[in-house]
């Protein structure tokens, strides 16, 4: 399928043969960032969150696109993810949001990777490392995950840092647990806790940041110095409630494609797939698609539809590891284009629809697409 690669204007150099792929619209990502910039105060920086391979979209490509569109720094979850970006030649500031082991500290310092100081204990464990390194202090204001909860612990941490001028506190941050919900009660409480903790700093660090996508899009005046823009950079609302309350329309970047590889007419009574769970109720056209649960097209999606010629066609039978079957309303050619997620003509299947079917959130679906699916990038 090198032909496809060229036609889609991909940045991928490897040829692929199976006509199943994820298409990433980098312009959509850039436009979402541009629209965000328009509503943020000029002094508020955008930190593009590209953890988990940029929510399945491809970390290096998304990071570069985000930086081109005006994001000035990047956030990832793990040391490995930070190194992947550095190895790709990205020089922007990178913050590791998760807990990094102290064994990574000397590499972080060498490669200008900022780590999260999430407890006094973590800071104390750095005491034998006396070269300059950068960290952001994480306050747990009510998420209950990582971060400093008690004022005394923060005071001890600040006293520890004060005696060590090689520790560079370039930021302080917290994370909200309910910013995507209509009820603001817990969010307001978290903001108040964070502000109280900020008062303990003699000198406020350069980059104070609190807001994930949900908080970024719902409150305009509480962003401090930077926002951590994740899910909505990819064009996805953080929650159904947020979807109804967006300050600008989001453009989704990801679509999922395949082609019909086999078409047949089956007789009434024919069964389809493992377990013979589907029986044709009349003579029917059945097509086979080369995508299955090993790609992230999960078995629980068996009641879903796919788009062919701009129309919804139902999946029939169980989704296999590498293939699945659909029922057609007419014969189609081998090679007919199929959209599993995204737009085709006037019809669209959105990731939220899958999220409902799977009783999960779009975040999880993005991260579930396997490496077997090539990501193609349109410019
Ligand atoms: C993942 C993450 C974000 C981004 O959240 P979105 O809801 O995707 O915008 C921000 N901050 C932290 C600490 C995170 O772990």
From TrEMBL:
EC number(s) on file: 5.1.1.1
Cofactor names: pyridoxal 5'-phosphate
GO molecular function terms attached to this record: alanine racemase activity; pyridoxal phosphate binding
Residue(s) carrying N6-(pyridoxal phosphate)lysine: 51
SMART domains xrefs: Ala_racemase_C
InterPro entries named among the record's database cross-references: Ala_racemase, Ala_racemase/Decarboxylase_C, Ala_racemase_C, Ala_racemase_N, Ala_racemase_pyridoxalP-BS, PLP-binding_barrel
Residues annotated as the enzyme's active site: 51, 274
Keyword terms of this UniProt record: Isomerase, Pyridoxal phosphate
Pathway the protein acts in: Amino-acid biosynthesis; D-alanine biosynthesis; D-alanine from L-alanine: step 1/1
Pfam families: Ala_racemase_C, Ala_racemase_N
One GO BP annotation of this record: peptidoglycan biosynthetic process
GO CC list: cytosol
Superkingdom of the organism of origin: Bacteria
Coiled coil region boundaries: none
NCBIfam families on file: alr
Homology family: Belongs to the alanine racemase family.
Protein task: Catalyzes the interconversion of L-alanine and D-alanine. May also act on other amino acids.
Protein name: Alanine racemase
Encoding gene per record: alr
